[in-house]
Amino acid sequence: MQFGLFGGARAKRGGPSGDSHGYSDFIDYVCEAERLGYRSIFLVEHHFTGHAQVSASLTLLSYLAGRTNRIRLGTAVVVLPWHNPVLVAEQAATLDLLSNGRLDFGVGKGYRDYEFSGFCVPIEEATERFDEAMEVIRKSWTSDGRFSHHGKRWNYVDVVVEPTPVQRPHPPFWLGAGSAESIRRAAREGYNLLLDQIASTDLIIERVAIFREECARIGRAYDPMMVGVTRGLQIVRSSEERQKALQTRIQVIRNIGTLARGPGAERYADPNFTAEDDDAPLLGTPEEIIARLKRLEAGGVGYVLLVDPAPSPATLAAFAREIMPAVAS
User: Fold this and answer.
1) pLDDT (tens digit per residue) in 47-87
2) What's the pTM?
3) Mind listing the pLDDT tens digit for each residue in 197-239?
4) What is the total count of domains within the chain?
5) Residue 244: inside a domain
6) Smallest Cα–Cα separation from 195: which of 270, 299, 60, 64?
7) Does residue 167 sit within a domain?
8) Contact, 206 vs 286, CB < 8 A?
9) Pairing state between β 2-7 and 155-159
10) Domain that holds residue 86
């Protein structure tokens, strides 16, 4: 197995100084992850939350490109319905150039009503805007010279997108998906697959199998690194730490449980749901976490993206020292 990080910077205090401090700590965190042998960092994009989440993921990744040498730099995801697709193509290609071909370009349609209303974009148009934006971005990166596009939302006449990405024909496309049909679509349309941190282990294994089967059906070569599975990480050493970790996990579920899809998703809305019933996170002692990872590995998972609710270099080091050697390739 190989491991990356998922998430983003967050301010520790309000105001500009807090934002700066939070981003500085996060940058150091990513640099330490590279030193310890982690494969990637995937940054989220959110707006108008009030929680100091990353809003300009490509900008932050461009800075990280200059501070790192090997770690891959991913977006999870750029929400295309809010952006001019040619500008996105230019910015992403610039990041791929600056990082010497380390960009993993994750894209999505978005799902939060208040973000769409904040950008004055009807959420009902998300799918058609996403599809057209991807058509433009593909043209931007694969056309030999200038191209034109005439669509419902965007019209470009005789334009050329510069610079050219280092990775050819383009950086890997990643798509977050949960339903069987969206997973099959990802396989058919050449995307790699991002799977969420909420789904149970059994559901993750089922989704990986669907993706592999669709790749086989269409003749697309499958590699385990084409599927990134996000998992919460909470290493505990005592019963007291375990109880605190379970309480934190419940808070995470309350914050993002509405995103759960698929069989059993309704349980996250149940007020009686307890973290003890949740086998999705890597929560436990190093030995317990290794056992959960081996179960994922037996189900075809080869690439895990870690999201720590209280990220620290110490946790990164402990995982790399005590857990990674038992499962890493």
Assistant:
1) 898 776 889 999 999 999 999 999 999 999 999 999 999 99
2) 0.93
3) 999 999 999 999 999 999 999 999 999 999 999 999 999 999 9
4) 1
5) no
6) 299
7) yes
8) no
9) unpaired
10) 2-237+285-327
